[in-house]
Amino acid sequence: MPEVSSPPTADRVAAALATRWLGRTFEWLPVCASTSDLAAERARAGAPAGLTIVADAQTGGRGRLGRSWHSPPGENLYLSLLLRPTRPAGEIPPLTLLAGAAVARAIAPLGVSPRLKWPNDVQLVDGAGHKRKLAGVLTEMASAGERVEHVVVGVGINVNTTSFPAELAERATSLRAALDRPVDRAALLAAVLNAFEPLYDEFERRGSAVAVAAFEELAALPARCRIDDRLQGTALGVDPDGALRLRDDAVQIHRVISGEVHP
Questions:
Q1: Are residue 168 and residue 67 in the same domain, yes or no?
Q2: Rounded to two decimals, what is the model's pTM?
Q3: CATH code of residue 239
Q4: What integer best gives the mean pLDDT of the chain?
Q5: Could you tell me if residue 82 is inside a domain?
Q6: Residue ranges making up the domain that contains 159
Q7: Phi, psi of 240 (to 5 degrees)
Q8: The pLDDT of residue 63 is above 50
Q9: Residue 80 domain-assigned?
């Protein structure tokens, strides 16, 4: 059984927190269905921007495309951030890229070399050169026309897991597996919040270009890839609205709004 670190409760996280507003309203739960569902519920009730909800386990954690997120108790980080952006709704999708960049910046000082995969994965490269998923981001927005009411950014990070379900074992990893030691979840959560806040504040001032630049700094681009079974070529970069820019073998440029990226 993996060694279980102490829970990332409010007092333990606050000891390492350097933010002004993010994470200053904080909820920790032993278990819940989904931290993002709770954050959205709190948002509709008027909760402030910066609310951070963390669970020790989730029974209904989810990722992109309706997938479930492996959420065993006592091992990893499952969190959701409540944001109330002033940017128009069309600029919100790149917040997924920004959140991935914040996670990558937070974990790099531990001694790993994270890479970002469009649109929402943080990966590590194993000893055999295979890219394995460490973390995922799911961003959900509530809006009225171009006015954004709130955004919930859900993040799952594999911290101390040493065993994955068979369907994930070949493509997932954890910080403990990469470092061969347990990682303190409270300190890591504080590092993620400390990295996210200044990026987000700059996003509020300057818009989606901030998120795109932060993503491209740690993305392995340009890179050969395939989008589902419909398109292949070279991923060149990301447009201001978060779309992936891909050049196919006929040298035609495509804007990819959604889909699964494969090597």
A1: yes
A2: 0.92
A3: 2.30.30.100
A4: 91
A5: yes
A6: 10-218
A7: -55, -25
A8: yes
A9: yes
